[in-house]
Design a protein that fits this description.
4 helices; about 110 residues; alpha+beta; 4-stranded antiparallel β-sheet
């Protein structure tokens, strides 16, 4: 039997594209020229807050959820982002991040 965990919401920082992160260099200016300061790496372009539905699950039950194909289909999938993270308020629970559309499907 799959446990019925409580729901929670978790915000997550997701990187944007590299093209959005670097300011263009003016035409005609080479590397080391005065325009070199115009091509500044903008780290804030890599932060995007995404609100995701999440399940608060006892740590021992996470494996059961991951093996259940119906539940696994609801997990958040994005390269470089973990879909199971530690619960901020408990060392014995984990947050299982879900697809944003899963919140509407479950209700």
């Amino acid at each position: 039997e799959v446990p019925r965990p409580s729901t929670a919401s978790q915000s997550l920082l997701v990187p944007r594209t590299m093209a959005d992160a670097i300011a263009p260099m003016p035409v005609g200016e080479g590397i080391g020229g005065a325009a070199n300061e115009a091509a500044v790496f903008d780290e804030s372009q890599f932060e995007k807050v995404v609100l995701l539905p999440a399940l608060r699950v006892p740590a021992q039950k996470v494996g059961e959820l991951q093996k259940n194909s119906e539940m696994k289909a609801l997990f958040y999938r994005r390269r470089g982002v973990r879909n199971v993270i530690p619960a901020p308020s408990s060392s014995t629970h984990r947050l299982v991040l879900l697809q944003p559309s899963a919140e509407a499907d479950a209700g």
